[in-house]
Design a protein that fits this description.
By secondary structure, the protein is an alpha/beta fold. It is 37% helix and 14% strand. The two termini are 31 Å apart. Bound molecules: pyridoxal-5'-phosphate. Pyridoxal-5'-phosphate (PLP) binds next to helix 5 and helix 6.
Length: 425
Amino acid sequence: MNYEFTEEFAEKQDAADPLKKYRDEFHFPEHKGEKKLYFTGNSLGLQPKNVEKHVKQEIEDWAKYGVDGHFEAGNPWYSYHELFSEPLSKIVGAKPHEVVAMNSLTVNLHLLMVSFYKPDNKRYKILCEAKAFPSDQYALASQVKHHGLKPEETLIELSPREGEHIIRTGDVLETIEKHKDELALIMIGGVNYYTGQLWDMKTITKAGHNAGALVGWDLAHGAGNVNLKLHDWDVDFATWCSYKYMNSGPGGVSGIYVHEKHAENKALNRFAGWWGHNKEERFKMEKDFDPIPTAEGWQLSNAAVFSMAPHKASLELFSAVGMSALTKKSEKLTGYLEFVLEKVSRQQDGASFEIITPRNSKERGCQLSVLVHGEAKKMFDYLTKEGVVVDYREPNVIRMAPVPLYNNFMDVYRFGKILRAAIDH
Ligand SMILES: *Cc1c(COP(=O)(O)O)cnc(C)c1O
């Protein structure tokens, strides 16, 4: 695509954008009476305007029905989580019975590792990322300790080569090969939260299986951002949060995927609760746990309806748009941001950026991470003052994510203008 750093170009792209109407479906924080340039959907997605209606319905049904709302509410709470199977399965590329919305992300990571990290004397190591998102690091280390093992002897951490930012797939495959006799599990963030790198999940999953390991992905930055085919890639398990790209509100409900071949295996060890028990028998309150042979078999508790109502609202938009149209726009829009960043950077001596996100659009989602040579914090503060919402990570990285559902080309153009002014400043 031939990009231009002009207002006319941005306007023309927006006018031709098949998803343009969705921008109006969101509430934007404002700056001097105008929408902020919000590029932080990778951290907390904006609120869809239909959230209020969906939450209100549950508040009203609770008032109206009390306990009978479990079966008589407009969306009966007893089966509320079932509303998500279909839309989530499309977002992550799974069968509907392979996914369920429940709990929060780190909780789910733990629950899934209870089932899928089964170290023995020979096979006990976990392949993961160095500098993974802290919660994942803590979860991994504590799971290892839970089995009486030492993290430093058990976790194999993948790092980029010296002087590089991106981890090469070839290096991952080599590491798997090297440890093939002792590898129990591979657990990596499918899109790295810091660099925005999208891993080759298909290839790595296959290599992990060939080595005899199980493979799970943390899709906090993947779900709702990139095209996923978890079932076809034969991924064993995955989990994600809904408050980043899925716009379902702070601390919103997480989701899990478990491949049907595992879900059908009732003997698979897990931490159990009544909501994972055979539905026909649930209220008989019998002693022995009989897991539902789907992803629902990992549920512990009844549905957290008030955190799920915004999720329901948000997924209506995802179902209307579809991941294919979304990622198509995403590629163009992030490509434009990349173009604008280079344009602005190149024209000025002294202040330069280095985009550390992969330059190949197939190896990233919508986020770009920029290493600022110079006074990164000062630049970040200037942008903030001008109504730009990006995210700053010590010591010098600014992360920005133009989200295709509500950002547009004009946002990126305006951002470029402000960035140029920031450099001049
Ligand atoms: C956002 C994020 C989390 C957050 O975990 P919560 O349990 O939802 O607080 C964890 N891991 C990764 C990789 C993330 O990006």
